[in-house]
Structures are given as C-alpha cells and as structure tokens.
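Q: I'm writing up a methods section and want to include an example of the input and output format. Could you take the sequence below and give the corresponding predicted structure tokens, formatted cleanly so I can copy it straight into the document?
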Amino acid sequence: MSTKKRKPKAKRSGNPGHKRPVSSAAAPTELTFDRIGKPEIDRILREQIGLTLTVALERSSVPSLQAFVDELEHEDDAVVAVRELEAELGIEPGADELPELEPEAELRLLRADADQERQISEVDKRLLTICREAMVSLERRAIRAEKELEQAVRRTEQAETQAARHERRAEERVAESQELRGKLEAAEAEITELQGRLDSARGKAAELEHELHDAPELVAGDAADQAEVEELRHRLKEREELLVEAHAEHERLEVALDAARREAIRLHHEVEGAESEEGAVEEALPEVETVLEAVQEAQKRCKHLVFTERSLETAEDSPFWRPDMVLADLIKLDKVAEAYERPEGIGQPVGQYAQDLGLDWRSGVGEVWYGIHPNDYHFTHEGHTLRVAEHVRVANGSGAQRCARVYCAFHPGSDGDGDLPRGVYVGPVGRKLPDSTTG
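A: Here is the clean output for your methods example:
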C-alpha cells in the first residue's frame, strides 16, 4: 500500500445518476435545468453567495446563470468520472490513502482529480460573475433609490408649502365667512325692525281707509285729512320698498356666506390631503340644448327623484342659457333623494348633505310668499298638493337667461292608503319664483 495522501474531493453537485442530453448549440433564451433541479441550484447559491435563485435572476443575466448551471453539471460529470475510476481501481469511497497503483492507473486518477478541480474552478468563476453582476445591479438600484428619495423630499417640501398656503387661504375664508355671518345677522335684525314698522304702517293705513269708507260725506275740501292720508300712503310705500331692499340684501349676503363656506370646506379638504369624491373623474354627461331636454335626460338617469308635470312645464318655459348646469345639479340632487329615502335618515341636515355634494342649497321659503303667490309655491302630483320648501340655486345671474332654480318638496310619506310615498318631488325648474327680489 502506498502512503501517498489524496486531496479530498469537493462535492457540491446534486444527483449525478442521470445522463445529461446533448444540448443545442444555440444560446438559451431562458434558464434551463438539464439534471440539477431548481431547489438544488437555489441551495448552492444561498450557501456560496447568499442569494436565492429568484434574487440572482433578478439582479444577474440569464446567460450568466445558465453558464453556472452548465458548469455545475460538468462538475457533476467530473465527480462521477472520479467515482467510477476509484471503483474500477478498487479504492474505497472516502479513503484518505491510496493503495499501490500502477503508474498508468495512478496517472489516470490524477487526471480525473485535476479535471474535477478544473470544473470546480469554473463553477467558482461563474459564481464570481453572478456576484459581480448582482453588485452592479445593487449599485444602480442604490443610485436610483437616492434619486427617487431626493425627488420625494422635494415633492414633500412642495406639498408642505402648498398645504401651508392653502391653510392660510382657508383661515382667510373662515374669517370672511364670520364677517359675512355678522352682516347677515345685522340684516336679519334690520328686516325684523322694518317688518314691524311696515305692519304698523299698514295697520294705520287700514284704519284710515276704513274711516274714509265709513264717512262718505267727508268734505272734499278737508285738505288736512287728505294730506295725512296721502302722507301715510307715501310712508307705507317707502316702508315696502325698504323691506324689499332688505330682503334682497339678505339674500345677497346668504349667497356670499354660502360661497365662502363652500370655499372654506374645499380648502380644508385640500389641507388634509383628502380629495373628495367630486375630485374623481365624473361621468361625461350628454349635451342638452334646452332646460326641458336637461329635465328629460335627468328623468332617464335619476332613479330616486320624482319628476312632476310642473317640472316639465316650467322647464319648457325656461330660457336659461346653460341647461347642462341644470342636468348636473339634478343628478347630484338624485343622491340627496337616495339618502332621504333611507329608513334611518341621512344622519345630518339635508342642506349640509346637499352642500357637501356641491349643490348651492337653500332651505326654507318665507311663509309670507306662500300666501302672496300660492300658485307658484304649490304644485300637484297624482292628486296630492305639495309645497315648495327647498331649492337649488343653479345660477344666480340677472335675468331669466342667466338665473335658474330647481325647486322641490320633501314628502315624508305615511302609512295611510293613497298617500304619496316618501321621497323628493321635483317642482318648478328654470325661472326663479317671485320673492322679495322679484316683487
């Protein structure tokens, strides 16, 4: 027996018991495994370079990994060749000392060992290539990440600057709305005072008219009494004109207050970074040429609003120049009707819910106008009389061509037979109903 020591053989490959088919000469476009499976390749990569097969594929080229797999299979072949030669020469597996061999046999064994070492070296070179490509990929990713971080920092700074600007604007709008609220309260107090003075003047005028009626023999020459009557009539007319002006100023202040409130709410949403649903891309609405076409189109789209005959009649009579605005507000109003139909209710004032949807909402109508213009503020549907209580200001310009309203009635419904169901019933659409601003 020879006392010559053998170098231990590295064994990193998988199952060498299968023959590898002859590969094509063409360069592979996908990673293929002829004899060594993906789990074994994954294990070797993790042990040797700390990368899984998935990460290595992500950060290195497929040809580099394919070359590594091919060299690993060549190493398998070299290991098999050494084992077969050892078995042929009668060397036990794992033996540290070689038996006495013929020079030719010992040369064959040395060549087989050298071939195995060469294949191991080739595998190591391929692993090094994969490592280098992975490092280059990591460096590029790091550079991109730094650039993206810088961009994110700049965007954050810009967003903070914009948010601060919007917050200042929101504070200005809140202050403006508070100022308008004070003016509105002052106007309401003035209206109340004027209403009292007007009622007093009307009462005195009625008394004088009654005295004149009961005293037909009054001498025409009684100039003092006649002058007093004319003076009272003149003062009454002045009080009525002041009341109309006060009502008009009251409505103007409410319009300004609502606009300031909506602007403050919008700016508040922007500051919080919470875009409302109105910010989303809305469904494109068809073009409409008249207010009547807008109402008819809304009838097709709105599933909850109830359109009465009055809505169609008044819409046909309206010369409003932007019927598309009427259609858009009717579609928003349908969402209010949907919420109103819920048995549990809306959970907040109707006006607030409507304003959140972007509607220019008006709740309530002065009781005096129900009596002065009953035919305008009442409408019928299926034999039931409904009264206008709320309306949407579509536009508030001067003249019927630039001013439009959508009036409606919120009917609570009841358990009685024959009553209308709970819902929102659309009344006059188009022209503004007579009030303090129209006479």
